[in-house]
Design brief:
With 393 residues, this protein is mostly helical. The protein has 15 helices and nine strands. The radius of gyration is 24 Å and the shape is globular.
Length: 393
């Protein structure tokens, strides 16, 4: 019997699998899993990529319903048309409006959507569905010098994967930084020692919000000469724990372990004196005396769930409210990370290796693409232009 579905009613569902791991899938209105989407998303289980892909894929599946397209009938031109509808520049008629009232994807979202669609249809092709489309999406390209330099024995590579759906042309991101003096104004606007820890640790540690909210007390080695032997100065170990009760997960998945109560491994990040001071102020004034049984650093302070782990969404909302009170507008956690990495890069004289390790980036190529470019507000840049304009003699 044919399934009667109202277009657009497919949705992303968060659930807990039998093995205890949190997962994202796509379900029909009555709650049953979309089988093709679920099989593909399970390949990314336990990663932040799965959640991102789920929300991008559900948009595409809703469009397929509207267009009455089956997986086996989708062509490369259909996918290019879809990418144009969500914001890519394509030279073809796009058909009826889609996503009315919603903003088009930005450059980064378009790149991720292209990777998601390519992966999904290559997966379908491997299962015997639409092999012709799989062949077109699976084409390669010649490796560039940058490709070879990123890979051990890269000189032997004859071909690299390509994605015909990806946005064309060079791209350099310009991240949004915090305004000057934002840290001090936020610290004056927050209402608790926990919130001061959040602002200070994001500003001085360059942590992602999931990393900060996912920290356990055992991860903190805040005295010189810690037992782990991995760093002589005060530091923290950022460990990927998919089972945290607040759903916070570190993006990086460096191996780690606990031996005799001491954490080793993970991503080791240095801690500033201000971070240590804010931590002890919080622990001696607000942290639950019974340690709440979970051993996590940041906890809820009020309400029925007081003492329970503080979720990243709570930290984001707190920063947004504090930013409004401080006259900064709505502050987002990742702005701290952008400002931290840019400051490290400037202080180190443009050393990409130092900036990579300080921020915990995967490679110097990421740091170079996002941060290692001329700041249009830089004093040297301004002086150079004024000289060219004849304003400086």
């Amino acid at each position: 019997m044919a399934r009667q579905v109202v277009i657009g009613q497919l949705r992303v569902q968060k659930l807990t699998r039998g093995n205890g791991r949190r997962s994202c899938t796509i379900v029909w209105p009555e709650g049953t899993e979309h089988p093709e989407a679920d099989r593909f998303l399970r390949r990314h289980e336990g990663s932040g990529t799965q959640r991102t892909y789920a929300y991008l894929l559900v948009d595409h599946l809703r469009w397929l319903e509207r267009e009455c397209l089956e997986f086996g009938a989708v062509t490369l031109r259909d996918l290019e048309r879809y990418m144009g509808i969500v914001g890519a520049e394509v030279a073809m008629p796009l058909g009826e409006p889609w996503r009315v009232g919603r903003r088009p994807y930005g450059r980064a979202a378009l790149s991720t959507a292209a990777a998601c669609l390519k992966g999904f249809y290559l997966h379908q092709s491997a299962l015997g569905v639409n092999s012709d489309l799989g062949g077109k999406l699976g084409r390669g390209r010649l490796p560039t010098r940058a490709d070879r330099s990123r890979s051990f024995l890269g000189h032997v590579k004859a071909e690299m994967p390509a994605n015909p759906l990806a946005p064309r042309g060079p791209h350099r991101r310009h991240p949004k930084m915090l305004p000057d003096g934002a840290r001090e104004r936020l610290l004056a606007a927050v209402n608790s020692a926990r919130d001061a820890v959040t602002v200070t640790w994001l500003a001085d540690g360059g942590l992602r919000i999931g990393e900060l909210c996912g920290l356990h007390l055992v991860d903190l080695h805040l005295r010189d000469g810690a037992a782990c032997g991995q760093c002589r100065s005060p530091h923290v170990h950022v460990c990927h724990r998919p089972g945290n009760p607040n759903g916070a997960e570190a993006k990086t998945k460096h191996p780690w372990r606990v031996e005799d109560g001491t954490v080793t491994g993970g991503l080791v990040k240095r801690v500033s004196p201000a971070m240590v001071h804010a931590y002890f102020d919080y622990m001696t004034s607000e942290y639950p005396r019974d340690r709440a049984g979970h051993g996590m650093l940041l906890v809820q302070l009020h309400g029925a769930n007081a003492g329970q782990p503080w979720a990243p969404v709570g930290a984001r909302r707190m920063l947004g409210r504090a930013g409004e009170r401080a006259g900064l507008g709505r502050v987002k956690p990742h702005e701290f990370r952008h400002s931290f990495t840019s400051a490290v890069l400037e202080a180190s004289g443009g050393d990409l290796l130092i900036a990579r390790d300080a921020g915990g980036w995967a490679s110097t190529a990421v740091v170079d693409e996002i941060y290692a470019h001329v700041d249009v507000h830089d004093s040297a840049f301004d002086a150079a232009l004024r000289t060219v304009w004849g304003e400086v003699r």
